[in-house]
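ok so for the tutorial part 2 we go from a plain amino acid sequence to predicted structure tokens. step 1 is just haveing the sequence, like this:
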Amino acid sequence: MALEETQPRVVSIPLPRPVEVTGPARDGGWTHVVLPAYNEAANLPALLDRFAALEFADGVTVWVVDDGSSDDTAAVATAAVGVDLRVVRHEVNRGLGQAVHSGLRAVLRVAHPDDIVVVMDADDTHDPALIEPLWAEVAAGADVVICSRFADGGDDATAPPVRRLLSRCAAALLRRVVAVEGVADFTSGFRAYRVSLLDRAARHWGERLVEEKGFACMVELLLKLRHCEPVIREVPLLLRYDRKRGASKLRLRRTLAQYLRLLVRDRLAPPPHWALRGPGA
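step 2 — the prediction. this is what the tokens look like for a chain of 281 residues:
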């Protein structure tokens, strides 16, 4: 396949950053929000309106990764008002993992080390207002902050039973097999990362930073980042699945198989040579 066919394209040009920013960005860097989106035209308007209504909206850039959608996802995104927004497009559907990878890569090309990257679902089940407590944890020293359904105050009662079952089975399995301090919710798709941490990992892993195509990509990224010895914290997540329009794209058996393959590959792979070195190594 030719190189130009494998590289995502940024097709919208954002407005320049405001000179003065407020809210979470005032106490640190900029907030880059990556929204992997496949056929989310029905959900994006409400979600982007929530971003526009944030008190700290002028400190946020939203990156919508249109993963080969067959609906008007890209058009809806570019029509958003009151949001500093960029669209990264895949000409064909590559899966959630590659959409996350393209979004992270696009952000790392322009972000400052003091910025943070927030990855969220594009189906309006995640509340952008949680970016504020995410920034508070980063300001207190965290490198990765997970919006957790299993933290005190978290809840996913509005999610379908199959999705809740998968989350709990995966969490129980991963807590037993993989020891990552500070993590109860391994599969949450709502997280914040320091750009400096992601940049360090990306320099080592390159195009292999995210290899999984499906939902297991969030676990994969966490397992790779653990070699950087990050400080990980969790904040409670109230999942709002009742706001989602359309059917879930998650397939239980396929996703469980992805988790199992990922764990086998992780156990067999040697740790990176810089695993015990500091960030400046």
